[in-house]
């Protein structure tokens, strides 16, 4: 076996490996003995057919492919050991030729990370401000949540709640055909078609209407884009929203502890402030991490981004509850190919890999360690809300593998907190 180290770039080593004919022949023999025991060849007992007969029966290429499948991993292991290469992930292998056998290998290496002078970064927290308008808007939302809907004898207006029967088709194919569905006409609602809500305005109870609507060429569902839809609609009921009076009774109806409207306003204001402070904290941490990442110099193999894209892609499918069977339908619905969707995730994946590597290097620099007591506290926090099977969950989380996962979760959290203290100018955090 001859190994040539072509070049090293982007934290990758590019190797060319040429196998000796004797090595290939030995692997072919091993494949022959493996395959002949599994292959039924007319005229021969299983395992007794000569190699040339087996080659004619299954094809010489099939035998060679099987031999290379077993030869290449072994040759790769020998090659990186000989070249003293420390790989961090599976290599990309491409067979260049088969006579002689030559293959190209791209080996991902450990990233190189050079931190900037992060001890002198300064990031100013954004002030948290909850205004009277914020409180009024939140209370107004509560009024809408507690509102009732009452039938009215007047034409349909925006923001009503109407009950309708629909018959529709697109290019003579059934589209939506349902009776007694509730519909909330609001401005610029794209469902079931752009302009549908506007067509209902002015209709009276038990009134019928027929109309056509054109889907725009850039409509999100590519199967409907540019097509014309025909609708027959009957309005069977019209309801309007009745908002509760904004008084002490309304406050007490939400919670008996709110004895007055003023107490409700105090509660809403405090809740909004807590949420605003939490958002400000998260935003501040994000800005601090970005500041540290911006002054760092990194080089890492592309495979890390590809792995992160795979993770994000699968998470999106799980979130949308889209399995492999429904993936094609989902992609048609958003008018994208799988490759386009993956490419959309690339910037986010790159940013996540960069931040993870930077935080890992900072943790090393700052000697961040997670203690056993911190892990135990996290386990207690994770199980305190588990009403059922709490003991079972605690047992699972106290396994060595689970504790190590928790340690890996807490390490970047502690690292971020250290960086936050540095960014705020805390003397205790600066070396």
Give the structure's gist in a few sentences.
The protein is α+β, with helices and mostly antiparallel strands. It is built from 13 helices and eleven strands.
Classified in CATH, the superfamily of the domain at 2-108 is Trigger factor ribosome-binding domain
Low-pLDDT regions: 427-431
Major beta sheet summary: 5 strands, antiparallel
Label the overall shape: extended
Strand content: 15-25%
CATH-derived architecture of the domain at 2-108: 2-Layer Sandwich
User: What's the pLDDT, averaged over the residues?
Assistant: 91
Distance between the termini: 51 Å
**Tally of strands:** 11
* Overall SS class: alpha+beta
- Tell me the CATH topology of the domain at 2-108: Alpha-Beta Plaits
Using the coordinates above, name the CATH class of the domain at 2-108: Alpha Beta
H/E order of the elements? EEHHHEEEHEEEHEEHHEHHHHHH
Amount of helix: 40-55%
Which value, in Å, is the CA radius of gyration?
A: 33 Å
Our count of helices gives 13
Structure description:
- The model is unreliable at 427-431 (pLDDT under 50).
- Among the domains are: 2-108, 2-Layer Sandwich (Alpha-Beta Plaits), CATH 3.30.70.1050; 148-242, Transcription elongation factor, GreA/GreB, C-terminal domain (Chitinase A, domain 3), CATH 3.10.50; 369-431, no CATH class.
- It contains 13 helices and 11 strands.
- α6 (248-254) packs across α7 and α10 crosses α13.
- Strands 6, 7, 8, 9 and 10 form a 5-stranded antiparallel beta sheet that branches. It has a 4-stranded antiparallel beta sheet with strand order 1-2-4-3, with helices on one face.
- It is 48% helix and 19% strand.
- The longest helix has 34 residues, at 261-294.
- The chain has helices at 21-36, 51-58, 60-82, 132-145, 196-200, 248-254, 261-294, 303-319, 324-334, 338-366, 372-383, 390-397, 400-424, and strands spanning 2-9, 12-18, 92-98, 101-108, 112-114, 148-151, 161-170, 173-183, 208-214, 228-242, 297-299.
- With 431 residues, the protein is α+β, with helices and mostly antiparallel strands.
């Amino acid at each position: 076996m001859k190994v040539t180290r072509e070049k090293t770039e982007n934290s990758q080593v590019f190797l060319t490996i040429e196998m000796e004919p004797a090595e290939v022949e030995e692997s072919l023999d091993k494949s022959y003995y493996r395959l002949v025991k599994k292959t039924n060849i007319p005229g021969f007992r299983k395992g007794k057919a000569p190699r040339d007969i087996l080659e004619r029966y299954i094809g010489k290429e099939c035998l060679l492919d099987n031999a290379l499948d077993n030869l290449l991993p072994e040759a790769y292991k020998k090659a990186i050991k000989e070249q003293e290469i420390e790989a961090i992930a599976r290599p990309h292998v491409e067979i260049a030729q088969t006579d002689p056998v030559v293959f190209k290998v791209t080996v991902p290496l450990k990233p190189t990370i050079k931190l900037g002078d992060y001890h002198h970064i300064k990031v100013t927290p954004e002030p948290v401000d909850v205004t009277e308008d914020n409180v009024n808007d939140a209370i107004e939302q509560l009024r809408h949540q507690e509102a009732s809907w009452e039938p009215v004898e007047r034409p349909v207006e925006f923001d009503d709640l109407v009950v309708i029967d629909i018959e529709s088709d697109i290019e003579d194919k059934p589209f939506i055909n349902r009776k007694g569905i509730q519909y909330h006409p609001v401005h610029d609602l794209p469902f079931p078609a752009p302009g549908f809500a506007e067509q209902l305005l002015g209709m009276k109870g038990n009134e019928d209407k027929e109309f056509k609507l054109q889907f725009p060429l850039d409509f999100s569902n590519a199967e409907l884009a540019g097509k014309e839809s025909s609708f027959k609609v009957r309005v069977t009921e019209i309801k309007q929203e009745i908002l509760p009076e904004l008084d002490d009774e309304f406050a007490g109806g939400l919670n008996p502890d709110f004895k007055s409207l003023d107490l409700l306003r105090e509660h809403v204001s405090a809740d909004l402030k807590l949420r605003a402070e939490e958002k400000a904290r998260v935003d501040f941490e994000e800005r601090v991490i970005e500041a540290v990442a911006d002054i760092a110099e990194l080089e890492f193999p592309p495979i890390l981004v590809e792995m992160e894209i795979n993770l994000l892609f699968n998470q999106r499918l799980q979130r949308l509850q889209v399995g492999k069977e429904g993936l094609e339908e989902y992609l048609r619905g958003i008018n994208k190919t799988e490759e386009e969707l993956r490419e959309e995730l690339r910037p986010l994946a790159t940013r996540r890999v960069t931040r993870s590597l930077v935080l890992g290097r900072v943790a090393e620099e700052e000697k961040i360690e997670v203690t056993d007591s911190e892990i135990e506290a996290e386990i207690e926090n994770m199980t305190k809300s588990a009403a059922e099977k709490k003991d079972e969950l605690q047992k699972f989380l106290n396994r060595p593998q689970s504790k190590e996962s928790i340690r890996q979760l807490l390490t970047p959290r502690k690292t971020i907190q250290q960086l936050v203290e540095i960014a705020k100018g805390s003397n205790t955090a600066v070396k």
